[in-house]
Amino acid sequence: MRQLVLILLGLIFVVVASRQAIAYRPFDSTDAAVADINEVELEFGPAGYRQSQAERTLIAPAYVFNYGFAKNWEFVVEGRGEHPLGSTDGSSRLVGHAVNLKGVLREGALQGQSGPSVATEIGVLLPGVNDEQGYGLSWIGIVSQRWSWGTAHLNFGAELTRDRNTNLIVGTIVEGPFDWTVRPVAELRYERQVGFIKTEKLSALVGAIWKVKDNLSFDVGVREAWVNRLPETELRAGLTVAFAAH
User: In angstroms, rounded to a whole number, what is the distance separating the alpha carbons of residues 221 and 62?
Assistant: First the structure.
């Protein structure tokens, strides 16, 4: 865990030519844009906090690594560490690991063109450590549109979970004007898992993104969720940095 944190922090402070950071923290959903060719985007959450009726959890770190390997296509690796607090038998775990391919199917407003941007993301869910055993599959469709007053992103898709259930997903991100230095953001997301294990999750997030410069932004968000009608609160904060991979 310490080595992973050091590697991610080291990437952040590499001094190289860079472009606009477009990866999407602090959301669960995403946008219809990808990294440019030979560009790296790193979404990094050094520490977060989640509280439910069952557990208080420190989330450290959370990361999404994006690499643009071809025009309109990127390779994505993601995961996070979770550490239960105040529990004598709770072990730290590494969860949420996945490798994905994300591609822009139609260039639109997010690529400087007219009309909506359309993208897709397909991936493999990987086993975790001390949790989430087995493999799964995921597919997401993404539609984004930008206006003078703000930007909206619609996500819809499905997962074959690691325990062989089907998880249906729909989510929407709405954010303030893109040219604002600090823009308010919000997300609404619904998931329904069907199969041997039935789970229903509704979540809402409000926050802000501070664009320090084109290749660096900071974010903060408060997420309230209801998992089978049981409340869950999460605090998120982190940054997104982009740089050319030489």
Answer: 14
195: left (phi over 0), alpha (psi -120 to 50) or beta: left
Neighbours of 107 (CB within 10 A): 18
Asked if 85 and 60 count as a contact pair (C-beta separation under 8 A), the reply is no
| Tens of pLDDT, residues 30-68 | 999 999 999 999 999 999 999 999 899 999 999 999 999
User: Considering only CA atoms, which of 61, 65, 62, 85 is closest in space to residue 75?
Assistant: 65
Any idea which residue has 């199969």 for tokens? Answer: 195
139, 122 contact by CB (below 8 A): yes
The conformation of residue 71, written as its DSSP 8-state character, comes to T
| C-alpha to C-alpha distance for 190 and 238, rounded to whole angstroms | 23
How many structural domains does the chain have?
Answer: 1
Q: What is the mean pLDDT of residues 94-121?
A: 97
Stretch (H or E) spanning 3: helix 2-12
62-87 per-position pLDDT tens digit: 999 999 999 999 999 999 999 999 87
In which residue are the tokens 């063109």 written?
113
Query: Which residues are 232's β-sheet partners?
Result: 52, 225
238: part of which helix (H) or strand (E)? strand 230-244
Residue 195 CA: distances (Å) to CA of 107, 109, 168, 198: 36, 38, 11, 6
Compute the distance between CA of residue 120 and CA of residue 36 in angstroms, rounded to an integer.
16
Task: Name the pTM for this structure.
Answer: 0.89
Show Cβ contacts of residue 20 under 8 Å, excluding neighbours closer than 6 positions.
Answer: 214, 215, 242
Q: What is the CATH number of the domain that holds 24?
A: 2.40.160.40
| Residues of the domain holding 100 | 2-244
How many Å is the maximal CA-CA distance in the chain?
56
